[in-house]
Amino acid sequence: AIERTLSIIKPDAVSRNLIGEIESRFEKAGLQIVAARMIHMTQEQAEGFYAEHRERSFFPDLVGFMTSGPVIVQVLEGENAIARNRELMGATNPKEAEAGTIRADYADSIDANAVHGSDSPESAEREIAYFFNDSEICPRTL
Ligand code: CMP
What we know:
- By secondary structure, this protein is of the alpha+beta class.
- A 4-stranded antiparallel beta sheet has the order 2-3-1-4.
- The protein has helices spanning 11-15, 19-28, 43-49, 59-66, 81-89, 102-106, 121-131; strands at 2-9, 32-39, 71-79, 115-117.
């Protein structure tokens, strides 16, 4: 089925000028960027986005990292977009990510891991709505 997923290019990748390289992988894989914005998240924005991790020991570091610099928040659309994006990203921990994935190629650590992607249809719906109104999502017409 055609799905949408929320993708974030994280501060480490933005800071290393990898936006184009990463977008190119999504586009070559047939995922369409149907919404995109650069933001520098506030602490409140990052805490709300990652609310499900609030009790985890890594939560303060996660929020600190995600507010350390600008990110690209975006919506990717395509056939099986949620799983496809996760395949392209590779495992959360770059040490465990398969060769050729975004995290294997560009990420340094489990914290600075270059990208985020929704992990289920339910989280995709919540995460897309967290950053975008319906009017900001622009499916292709050509
Ligand atoms: P992300 O997909 O953005 O979702 C939560 C983030 O927490 C994850 O990527 C990692 O960057 C970060 N993180 C740090 N430590 C862990 C951990 N032990 N397990 C899962 N995520 C972690």
